[in-house]
Write a structure and sequence with these properties.
Radius of gyration: 20 Å
Structural class: mainly alpha
Strand content: under 5%
Number of helices: 6
Order of helices and strands: HHHHHHEE
Largest sheet: 2 strands, antiparallel
Helix content: over 70%
Number of strands: 2
C-alpha cells in the first residue's frame, strides 16, 4: 500500500510540475492503468480531466463548459452514492459497495475523456481548424438556446453543418 502511495505521489508531481502531457496518449492510459488503488486512480483521472478541461477552455469555452458540467455531475453522483452507505453495513459489504461506486465513477470519468477526445478530433473530420470548430460550437449553442430553425444538413464551402 505504501509503494502504491509513493507511485501516486510521483504521478501527482508530474501532473503539477507544469509539463504538458497528452492525456489522450497511450502512455498516459498506461500510467493510469498501472495505478492499482481504485480511489487513487479516480482522483488522478479527475485531476487530469480538470487540467485538460481548463486547457480546452482557452480555445473552446462551450465544449469545456459542457465537459466541466459532465465531470461535476459525475463527482456529485459519486459523493451522493458514498453518503448513502450506512455506517451499520458490514465491513465487507460496505467495501464491495464502495469499490463498485468508485468503479462506476471511474468509468464515467473515462467516458468523459473519450468524449473529449472525439470532440477534439471532430473538427478535422469537418475540415475546420480547432478555432473554427469552437466558433461553430458557439453558433450551435445559440441555435439551441434560442430555438432557431435550422434545416437538415447544409453544405457550405465543403463544410457540412447539421442541425
Amino acid at each position: 500500500m505504501v509503494e502504491e502511495a509513493l507511485k501516486y505521489n510521483e504521478v501527482e508531481s508530474i501532473l503539477e510540475n507544469g509539463e504538458q502531457e497528452d492525456i489522450f496518449s497511450p502512455e498516459c492510459f498506461e500510467k493510469l492503468s498501472d495505478v492499482k488503488m481504485p480511489a487513487t486512480k479516480l482522483e488522478m483521472l479527475v485531476k487530469m480531466l480538470r487540467k485538460q478541461i481548463t486547457e480546452y477552455g482557452k480555445t473552446n469555452q462551450m465544449a469545456a463548459k459542457r465537459f466541466q458540467e459532465m465531470l461535476e455531475e459525475t463527482i456529485k453522483l459519486y459523493h451522493e452514492r458514498r453518503k448513502h452507505l450506512s455506517a451499520e453495513e458490514a465491513g465487507e459489504t460496505q467495501e464491495a459497495a464502495t469499490e463498485e461506486i468508485i468503479r462506476n465513477a471511474t468509468e464515467q470519468a473515462l467516458q468523459i475523456l473519450r468524449e473529449m477526445n472525439a470532440d477534439r478530433e471532430s473538427f478535422r473530420k469537418a475540415g475546420l481548424t480547432f478555432e473554427e470548430k469552437a466558433f461553430y460550437d458557439i453558433l450551435m449553442a445559440l441555435r439551441d438556446q434560442y430555438n432557431f430553425e435550422f434545416g437538415t444538413d447544409v453544405v457550405t464551402d465543403g463544410i457540412i453543418l447539421s442541425s
